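Assemble and predict.
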Amino acid sequence: MSDYNPKFIEQKWQRRWTDQRVFEVREEPGRPKYYCLVMFAYPSGHAHVGHVRNYMIGDVIARMKRMRGFNVLHPFGWDAFGLPAENAAIKHKSHPEIWTRENIAHMKGQLQRLGISYAWDRELATCDASYYKWNQWLFLKMFERDIAYRRRSTVNWCPGCSTVLANEQVVEGGCWRCGSVVEPRDLEQWFLRITQYADALLDGIGGLDEWPDKVLTMQRNWIGRSEGARVRFSVDVGDEGAESIDIEVFTTRIDTICGATFVMLAPEHPLVDRFADEASDAAAFLKRVQQFRSQDRTDRLTGAVEKEGFDTGRTAINPFTGQSVPVWIANFVLAEYGTGAVMAVPAHDQRDFEFARKYQLPVEVVIQPETGVEMIPLDGASMEEAYAGPGRLVNSGEFTGRSTEGAAAFMALAAESKGVGRPEVQFRLKDWGISRQRYWGTPIPIIHCDTCGQQPVPYEDLPVELPAVDEFTGRGDSPLAQIPEFVNTSCPSCQGPARRETDTMDTFVDSSWYFYRYCDADNETQPFDPDRVDYWTPVDFYIGGVEHAILHLIYSRFFCKVFKDLGQISHDEPFTRLLTQGMVLRDGAVMSKSKGNVVDPDEMIGRYGADALRLYETFVAPPEKELEWTDAGLEGSYRFLTRVWRLVTAVCPVVDQVSRPDLATLRLDDDHRALRRKTHQSIRRVSADLDPRVHLNTAVSALMELVNELYLFCDQHNLAPRSVNRAEEFGTVVAVQTRAVLAEAVDTLVLMLAPFTPHLSEELWEQLGHPGGVITADWPECDPIVAKDDALVVPVQVNGKLRARLPVASDVSDEDLRATALAEPSVQLHTKGKEIVRVVVVKRKLVNVVTA
RNA sequence: GCCGAGGUGGCGAAACUGGCAGACGCACAGGACUUAAAAUCCUGUGGUCCUAUGGACCGUGCGGGUUCGAUCCCCGCCCUCGGCACCA
């Protein structure tokens, strides 16, 4: 018996799997498919044990499904574009591609040493022109359908680096690299019209019943659907006959409109400049507006600045009351939400209330609560906070007396028939700005021509490849804009001189459809063959970090709907089931290079082997929970594997190498039957824990119990491994029954361990004399008759407190159970002198004796 | 503030449909083996108490409730984590 040597067996089997290409798959119509997907990786350099937890969970599921007869697609690839590569290039005076390819090579090696069963033949990297070509193709399709469009918008500009920063790169208002204060700057930007799908994305959430609630809630909030009304307030223009001006407001509480005592505009509202021009002291007016506009953007968005405003001196007509109300400018009104203007109802909105009190504006109560402890009517002069709850309308003209229930919808329609407004739905979701003034991304395939305007690059000219660049300085505009050979081109329409678009796409574009590309990764004529994608998709199981709950998972759902509209796919949602795995912590903190608490998988593989690492990360906590890393825990998992190794290798000479005795024909003793029962109960438990529950940790527990049971069994039968030296001595004379049940148990153990510890299982499976790898073996079947307990232990309670445990036959009748329980001495002791009013008997499960 | 998830031994956790709380592992303690140690194997391990090979009581964040019976369901509160947050 040799020692467990993970290094040797892991290399042996990894080589064999690769040579035999066992994880490569093709469509097999008629065979059930299973698409198991883990979020692809950003090639940042080195994967740590936190990153790879995700991959291990996916691998357990993929391997288990494979053994259960599914045609399993389990691919991997690289989210290879993005800023860190460009920054590394600037720092090392190198090229982003060099850094990226090196990192991919290193990380791929790390994953391969973990023995993950990827179909590497489908590997893709988004920085491959063969991939991003299809980003461009899709962009053009979207451009044709007006889903992709260009408009001016405000971006973060770093004056120190003379470049645009992504929102994530602005740290507390400053540039993450040089610390300069970031300025807003207006630029022409490309957008994808995701808002066109806002309702579809929201409605689709209802069908995602195998996604975590947490993620669905986050998506709902992110989309932020809000039903209300758009209402027009006409501004007093003074002179009769002067052109009228309207302020449109969006409100969800049009039922309170009769209490609207003023109107507020965002400082960026288009009317503000005009009002300033027309003001008596235009300069002072404008100065105050500028003050608001220059307030820190994020502070304004998060409400960190104090609510302030000033009177424009203008008035507008409340279309429901006909009253003239002042128009104010307020710093907390957001230009980018709704219409950039709101009606203020101080009595029924807390923000408006505070604002009104601060500037002594009138507070007009139009809703009176109908329930509540104190039924004192609200009074605008004395109330101390706004009342936003339900009630009955007062001082609301023809609407007075209505309940707030349904009033908003009714009054929105009333506004429409009056011609002063209409019902409207607003979304928090914004169109997706995809322009990046960066090099290391997909070039946007558009040509700007002075005579023809924006022209799409013809499909046959795709891909627009990234041009070679000698040195990355990080200075100046978009790197592509500095390359005349790239920029200068001819117009595809008029052949005149024209300029290429120099923005590249947000990398979230790359990751929004990579899972379709896996299905047909080397297609050169289209993004993918719809038939091949139709076979594999939707993704059955998707595993990744919860940090992608919003962006990536909404963008992918959006792309899915676009692809469907393009006729490329047939399903509505890309991911049937989603699991968000917990992070791996060390010393209570998320692993990160900067904290210096990362654990390198290679180091752990070197010490304990990949199988121990895989087992540890799947056993120690449920997949969706955080995992606190401990070296001792990993060592425990390693110990378990050595225990399995000793057990199986010691039992090998005992169990028949060539054929297994037929259990059906053998008469078994009680202890043989007990081991079989444990074996089959373990099959039932592990199978259910893995699928559909994905409770990997309890599945491992069940396997540990089976091993413990096997050790006890071997001890009772004077067998290895406990009585090591006696193994050889008695090995050949072991009773056939013992050999048979042992063989079954050990085979089962090795099979069910295979998803977790594939190398160890392969090696032991081979040593047990089985031809063909464990990968191609079938998952064991539970025989319910064998698994059935033939004796039960039924707990007996008196008044809900456990007083006895009764060993009874498994087919015991309720009457017998009741009688046996009542006869039990401890039950009699606790019921002595009391009247028994009831005896609850739960069939085969429990007896509860209730006394008066 | 709103929404979501959670709170169980010294620690990670388990308990699937309201039915024996703490499976499995870590740590710790005792024992076997050994010249010794490591490794391995075995045993024990929620708390308090007692007349102690047995037994009593308490125990799943806190307080109530429903129920024969509650970690699980209901009401109120506390705490932790995550998300959203001046969205009109």
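The longest strand of chain A covers residues 148-158.
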